[in-house]
Amino acid sequence: MKALFAEGIERPQLLLKRKLVLINWPFLLLITAITLVGVAALYSVAGGALEPWASRHVVRYCLGVAFLFAVALSDIRWWLRAAYPLYLVALLMLAAVIIFGVESGGAKRWLGYGEWSFQPSEIMKIALVLALARYYQWLPPDRVSWPHAVLPPLFIIGAPTLLALNQPDLGTAALFGIIGGGLLFLAGVSWIYFIAAVVGVIAVLPHLWEKLHDYQKERVLTLIDPERDPLGSGYHIMQSKIAIGSGGLTGKGYMQGTQAQLNFLPEKHTDFIFTMFSEEMGFIGAAVLLALYLLALLFITYMALRCRSTFPRLVAAGMGLCLFAYVFINVAMVTGLVPVVGLPLPLVSYGGTSMLTMMVGLGFVLNAHVNRDTRIRREELGPFW
Amino acid sequence: MRESDDGQRLRRRFSRRAVLIAGGQAGLFGLLLWRLRQLQILDSSDYRLLSDENRMTMQLVAPARGAIYDRIGRLVAEDRENFRIIVVPAFCKDLKATLAAVSRVVPISAADEDRVVRAARRQSGYFPVLVTEGLTWQQFALLSVLAPQLPGVRTDRATYRHYSHASSMAHVVGYVGMAGKDEVDQDPMMRVPGFRAGRAGIEKSFDRDLRGRPGTIQYEVDAHGRVVRELDATPSVRGKDMVLTIDQELQTIALRRIEGLRVASIVVLDALTGAILVMASFPTFDPNEIALRVNLERWSEVARDKDHPLENRALRGVYPPGSTFKVVTALAGLRAGVITPDETMTCPGGFQFGRHYFRCWKRHGSGIDVHQAIKQSCDFFFYQTVNRLGIDRLAVTARELGLGQIHDIGLVGQKQGIMPDTAWKKKMLHQPWYPGETISCGIGQGYVSATPLQLAVVAARIATGRAVSPYLIAKAAGGAEPAPLGIDPAILDIVRAGMVAVVNEKGGTAVRSALTIPGVQMGGKTGTSQVISAKNRGFLKGWEGETHALFIAFAPVGAPRYAAACVVEHGGSGSHAAAPVMKDVMTELLLRDPAAQPGFAAGSQANASSSVAAAEPPQ
Fold first, then answer.
1. What is the tens place of the pLDDT at every residue in A342-363?
2. What whole-number distance in Å separates Cα of residue A120 and Cα of residue A357?
3. Beta carbons of B76 and B169 less than 8 angstroms apart
4. To probe the interface with B, which of A280, A294, A300, A379 has the most B CB atoms within 10 Å?
5. How are beta strands B562-568 and B548-555 bridged, if at all?
6. For A298, which of B22, B48, B50 is closest by C-beta distance?
7. Predicted-complex ipTM score
8. Is A222's Cβ below 8 Å from some Cβ in B?
9. Could you give phi then psi for residue B554, rounded to 5 degrees?
10. Are B192 and B60 in contact (CB under 8 A)?
């Protein structure tokens, strides 16, 4: 490894001390602030108690920070090597879910052994970004828009997206799509492909619709318009809108939200936590939280722009796309703009897996930032290894 | 350098596009803010109204469950009216005090109270919880009057499941029960108070069809939970009705006939179509005892009974078929040509194979051809036959006749039985097949085992020569006739003649059970299968060590229409315990001749009763 990269990477050796200086500390502060909002919200959801959620959220965050640092301070060359194998492993696990997966709530998403289980799609979110960044690090810049150079990344994105759709997990599929499409765009692929893709989808969609069975159509329609299914997600969305709306400009006050406490929002501590927060803190509180997220996204964009090499640049940008997709889809979902797909609000929603994924992802952003001046030369990089 | 120029251009392109994307993200966040402004500022007063002054509540209306009919339209399961008390915990000032007030009119058990309190804690307080049901009219009327003074308490008229001819139909129809916690989590419909899900039998297998779709009523309620007005209602949709192939009257007769025995079951098929006319299993239970309110004491008594009344023996009882299996061996032997119709043997009372001596139950002497062998149930003849035939060729014919496989009639838990061959033993026991094991298989002992349903299928296939498959849910008339078996009709004739002789010729093993209806005969085969083997000798004592009594039959002889199998567990010999049961059931069956009657049209009734569905507004 050393022999290959000794000349490939300028300044390959960064001392740990130097790395710590290079870390973007204000960004870390911002993340902590967002998490604290989550802790406060979870404290309120539990009716003013640290148990069962708020205290554990803190513990998980601390664990997440450890992971974040581990990733941020690790050697970037290692990740260049690991990108494809990691992607392959994640893809295999996603496929394995079809066969060995544990079904829960009508969808197979979990791989488990005994008491220990996890969602391979979580690993895939990271692996997808790394694999695409690795690909464009290797691809000579003049070939970025060559048709046969666009095909491999399309496969890299398509395979996990189709597997997620098959679970079925529309939220994750959308997430993969947004991350993948965004990265292709950022990597410099010609506009023509994106325009062609949009035109193609519009052209094919009606034909596809004709081919569907009635019950399949019904399912799709229910997804688009949850009111069609007033017992399922439609009821939750109605309740969520009432809760948010009744919050008004300034909210009902911290721990004063009646709607979220009284009505059945089944996942008010996970997917619907934004509802609860907006009811209690009002439009102003919701806007502040969104502003914090936007600020974090701008930070990430800035860090990506600062990178000299393609790999860290795209890794940072990709993780940014992931964070954005999470926040946007979650908030749009609880406000009734998009169908309920079951994605948490990153750093705020209670949940160990999503917290860990997000912190590892942000660890990669910081890793890219630490390596902002590292120059990786593509000549020394093999197509696969 | 061109490459680095390109690299620079790409980095500039990245910067441009990254800024574009950041702008897009900011724009989409703007969209979210616009949406929040719409909800929280522009329409806020509406939502606040909904939230604070008038809380909306949605009541789920349980759908009527589909009825279950027998083949000619006799009701066997239906919904009946049920007066209930429901409480909406969120509207109660003090749940326990409210329950105490209710219990002054209707006694509430400690278990019920506990259940209500736990349910109230587990789910949203706005979900109604069932307190108690099965009220008398007086209790219902009194509580309806009192209800306005008890915030959160509501009386309503719902339905409960009633089973007619309960104990004879219990194994087929099954029963319903309250949804468990897991089911409630999976399906919000289950939260409808008192909603019942199929727990066994048809009620379970066809639960989705029978269930229907719940309706909803949206109420506007004030802070005390009193209904201000009804906002919107979606009527519930009645579940689908089901029509069984079972003839309830015959089923009851059959059950009454086997009632005196300790454990027994009988299956009767329409031999031409495969429709199951009778599937009775004793001991049985009364699902009505648990339909309205779970009588836990009675229930655990039933569930723990050592004769297992909940088990449907016809599908789940697995028995060595014993001598009834000889018809299979005979067919296989004739087919393979290892015996001819004219060949005669002399039965010395047993068969020496290697160092092992296989006994015949009697010394039959000379002149035993296949006809006599079936009629007198000569073990020796079939030892010889199967020895020449080998297990694998026997297994092929046995499977063609329906053994060793699940005939899926839609009920869960059907047993497969075993039709062994060399491959089976290799796979299951990882051992080679020993020739000595073939011998006892020839008379339906050894590894061979079958359910009464499978034995009835064997009888039906031999009787008609067609690959009849059993079914339990009535089909529309005019279905395709089952395909013929690949067995020479002449060979089938020989075996059938043997079976006719068993019942109707002097010296037949079941000659005492010949039908007494003039001009009508049945053919059959007795079986007495041993439960004691070399392995379990000494462990099974008393009743448990007795032989099983079996009988398979078809009738009428000239043009077989009915095929049946009867098993009396540990009942002694087939000719004494099983054949007389078959005689009586066959007699009733032939006198009524249900196959000749037109079936019940499922559609007519179903359409009339689901007019609610038609009235549903288009969405």
1. 789 999 999 888 899 999 999 9
2. 11
3. yes
4. A294
5. antiparallel
6. B22
7. 0.91
8. no
9. -140, 160
10. yes
